[in-house]
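Exercise 7. Given the components listed, write out the predicted structure of the assembled complex. Treat all entries as one system.
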Amino acid sequence: MLNFFPIHIDKKSKSPIYQQLGDALHDLIEQEILKPNMKLPPIRTFAEHLKINNVTVVNAYKYLENKGVVYSQMGSGTYVSPLPIKETPSSIFLEQLDSNEKDLTTPEQNTINFVTLSPPTDLFPVDDFKALFNTVLERDKGNAFNYQESQGYLPLRESVCDYLHHYGIQTSPDKIQIISGAQQGIDILSKALLRYGDILFVESPTYHGAIAAFQSRGGRIIEIPIEKDGMDLKVLENYMKLYHPKFIYVMTYFQNPTGISYSVDKKRALLNLAEQYDTYIIEDDYLSDFTYSSRPIVSLKALDHRNRVIYIKSFSKILMPGLRLGFLVLPKSILQSVLSAKHTSDISTSGIIQRTFDLYLRSDLWKKHSKDMQNIYKDRYACLLTEIENLLLEYVSYIPPEGGLSIWLQLKDHYSIEEICNRLLSYGVIVSPGSLFSFNTSTLPYIRISFATVDNEHIKKGIQIFYDVLKEYQENNKKGLSH
Amino acid sequence: MLNFFPIHIDKKSKSPIYQQLGDALHDLIEQEILKPNMKLPPIRTFAEHLKINNVTVVNAYKYLENKGVVYSQMGSGTYVSPLPIKETPSSIFLEQLDSNEKDLTTPEQNTINFVTLSPPTDLFPVDDFKALFNTVLERDKGNAFNYQESQGYLPLRESVCDYLHHYGIQTSPDKIQIISGAQQGIDILSKALLRYGDILFVESPTYHGAIAAFQSRGGRIIEIPIEKDGMDLKVLENYMKLYHPKFIYVMTYFQNPTGISYSVDKKRALLNLAEQYDTYIIEDDYLSDFTYSSRPIVSLKALDHRNRVIYIKSFSKILMPGLRLGFLVLPKSILQSVLSAKHTSDISTSGIIQRTFDLYLRSDLWKKHSKDMQNIYKDRYACLLTEIENLLLEYVSYIPPEGGLSIWLQLKDHYSIEEICNRLLSYGVIVSPGSLFSFNTSTLPYIRISFATVDNEHIKKGIQIFYDVLKEYQENNKKGLSH
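Answer.
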């Protein structure tokens, strides 16, 4: 293998030899001649081969390690990093679009937003919250604005346990950590569990906000492909043996972006693997409340008898994203480190929000709202499916999800997703390109269509535009080919 | 120097030689025979001396580096880390005490709390906020609960600029980042600016919450001693040359815990050094509003014409800690990376809190409240100083701060601070021991007395108990010596 490395060392050059060697290897890595997780040559052999000193090779590897391009495993060797740690500006751009779009004072009236996963503001239970705010302030006065326990307001942790009981999750308030939204949950778990260079597994494709948080802690991310009923277990098991990850991040219901849900068998297999290889599973339950089938929801956490599952729940998608509220259910073993990570992150979540939400959860308002939202979304979901069936089947394929707020459309391989997205945009339709949900492939022949803020009228209009764009694209493509 | 290292390598042992060597060095570091920032022997010399292979020494150093015990600088060598990265459970315990004490349903009525820096709940402007909450919900409805721009609600960023204008800071809304409290500000700045192993400077002693956040990002912290008018510039300049830190974290007014403020000369010198060595200064303005002298407040940021200062402001101490609201003023060069760090941390700060606070800041309520609080605290400050002058001068010395909420008492060197704190606790008086504000000395002969929640009656009672405890301690000590 060594003979294939086109490395030239110039001993007369002014740059130190370790740096010349490091830069040459870096080039090979960037050109993907040296591939992710490939082992670099052993130090002594490589040094002999290049006729340089052992320590120079060590320094070259070290130089690359400082750049994050390779990693070393004690007693085993040095390997090419699974990814160059890089910024992800495009995802931030799109999330911004997602966040801001409702907040503009002069929104583009004609935009059809198939990107956002949050409910439209006119469906927020604002009046209920207003009344409860006032109740809390009457009752608690200044205490509502004081520091709260970092772990969270105790009565809220109690009502969260009651809520979970309905989903078959038995836990106690001492295992609940209140968080300022799911993104913070992911962030503080990264802080508590990851040390720089640690390996973790995610589904491929997955939620870009999680990738960004893991990357920002220096986590090395390995993607495990998913099938229609969950992670590919063969790949997973092979990789578990190789890497012993710190944790596996999954969405078991209506996975973002694919919409798939895990089978019971795969859930059990995942739990067994976690036990066997002594790792944790982070289960991000961002949306299981919106199921449109009659099958009961059974989270991984509900099946977790060996304390392997860390459960994240947020209320952004069900209730209102601006609440910035959610919770974690934690194995006892990591309670203290998560509490400490929460404390250094923002000390505690807003007391007035926690207290108001506690009253909301204890009232019947919550159940009613959740049911109402489910009905509205079920109707939109049916409408979207019908429109896709009627118009798009010539161009796309997909697996109908059993719930959630989006559909993951696979387009024909040779389509340029970027070009299609741009054309849609020119007609005022915004969608999420597949590339947003993976960090090491710049193209995935998919588009995610979310209907959280789009009513049936606009779903019909939007899919009609989608059809027109695809048809025109295909015709131009054919013309291009025939020339 | 090598001859003094008592290192024994057993080539017949089952543990690898690199590990034996690493463990032996680790012991020497723990015993402080090898001191922080001391250079380890050069690889080849050391290997010859120990009659082992170069690569074994390299592996031993690497093994220690993975543990965070040493760090390496390319082309220069390997050095003992300024600190072993360790958990700080004691500080978390005390902060918890601080946070929870108001929230207990059955507080110990007789406790005199000289620890907390937050105002008592009965001084919170709850009614004003309640009225404004309702105004916001009437006006903005669902928008108040939607995602907000990650950078912060624009009208609030505008009113923050007006507020800053009164303090001589000229900036614009595009340079403001809204944060969920100062702790989050420190955390996201760490995320945006630090890479694992980067060096940063702090004042010694300093705020333990900042240390915890920097440590959690793998930052290597160097402490710069402070004098009565700011950092020791000689030490600072020497260390700047050596380390080129990513940033310097300072509190220019009523520093926590010492209470000192920077002279104008030191502020200018600090800015010049930042320019010369191309680094940033994080100025944590947690309390400058509470000044009791007639001298105007001139922040580092107001003097910063070369965009070296990152300014953090929170309203926890002035208004209500449970608001979880503050802001950063940022140099343009780091706007994007801070925004991205905020986004991966919690997407955005609560919209309803931002909107309500915006109205508060625009009204005259803010000015009135801030003035009222200042008067209350000025009175308590005078009372505390008088009591200390009357009773404690035999046992303690201190520099009277020009503002803030605490006094930093230096006790005689041979006093056991731990024992004194425990005795005070047994009489129901809690104080902050000096050791809490440094991470590499377990004893600092200081105690911080804060009067934020203690009225004059309890200040008098508390200092009387302090006097009794010190007197008794000294008498016992004398008896002990005479035996």
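Discussion: The first strand of chain B starts at residue 70 and ends at 73. Residues 365-391 of chain B form the longest helix (27 residues).
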